[in-house]
Amino acid sequence: MQNSEISLQVQGLCASYGVTPAIRSVSLEVKRGTIVTIIGANGAGKSTIIKTICGLVKPTAGSVRLFGEEVTGLPTHVLVKKGISVVPEGRRLFTKMTFKENLELGAYARSDRMAVRRDLERVLNLFPDLKDRLSTVVGRFSGGQQQMVAVARALMNEPRIMLLDEPTIGLAPAVVDRISELVVEISRSGVDILLVEQNAEIALEIASYAYILEAGQVIAQDAASTLAKSEAVQKAYMGI
Questions:
Q1: What mean pLDDT is predicted for residues 193-200?
Q2: Is the pLDDT assigned to residue 191 strictly greater than 50?
Q3: Which of 68, 85, 100, 224 gives 204 a disulfide partner, CB atoms 3.0 to 4.6 angstroms apart?
Q4: CATH number for position 55
């Protein structure tokens, strides 16, 4: 039976790179109206989960359900049309193209051009510092600005759920704070969020539920506020 309260459900998901297992029997879910985070050390398999969910890595076992529909192994472009958007690690922008052109590419799967123009204005209102730079080549933006472009591009697909892979990595503290504020704003606008982060402190602050990944396996899960108070989590992932 479908559960309308769950936007993304992953059960027993496994994936490998060659003969090397990357994730092992991972199960998680994102409920409607929530921010869910996956935290863990570098190399724990966090990005592989994102890539497997969105069809970039073929699962060897397990299932992925999106809004109640079985979508395991479907290609990325099909999932995009079903309401999923991804902000990949490293941003993957078209740096020789303008900000506006990058945003337009984010809406490539949509045919409702009038609605796209409406959403362009709505998205720009989330990024007031960039609003007057539509004609600027993205390669001229700072790292923090490029991360905001990546988020803005993902929003142009009019997603129902967004997967963010390490959106704060390598950014200055002030920019990290701004990105985290944006994630909360996007969630409040009605987009469900699965956030992969090495920065456990910021992730646990803005998420409602969290999974801890180690060596490709979920080793703990709980309300984010509960895990943030855990002495073991603080020592292992927050440097406290």
A1: 94
A2: yes
A3: 224
A4: 3.40.50.300
Please report whether residue 1 resides in a domain.
no
Assessment of whether the complete model's pTM goes beyond 0.70: yes
Torsion over CA of 104, 184, 128 and 152, rounded to 10 degrees? -10
Look-up of token digits 């759920």:
161
Distance CA 2, CA 16 (A): 29
Phi first, then psi, for residue 118 (nearest 5°) are -65, -45
Q: State mean pLDDT over 49-62.
A: 95
Surface-to-core class of residue 125, CB atoms within 10 Å of its CB (0-12 exposed, 13-18 middle, 19+ buried): exposed
What are 141's two structure tokens?
Answer: 């933006």
- Between CA 43 and CA 198 the distance in angstroms is 10
Q: Widest CA span of the chain, in angstroms?
A: 52
Burial letters 77-101, b for 16+ CB under 10 A, else e: eebbeebbbbbbbebebeeeebbeb
Domain span holding position 165: 6-237
Contact 216, 45 (CB under 8 A): yes
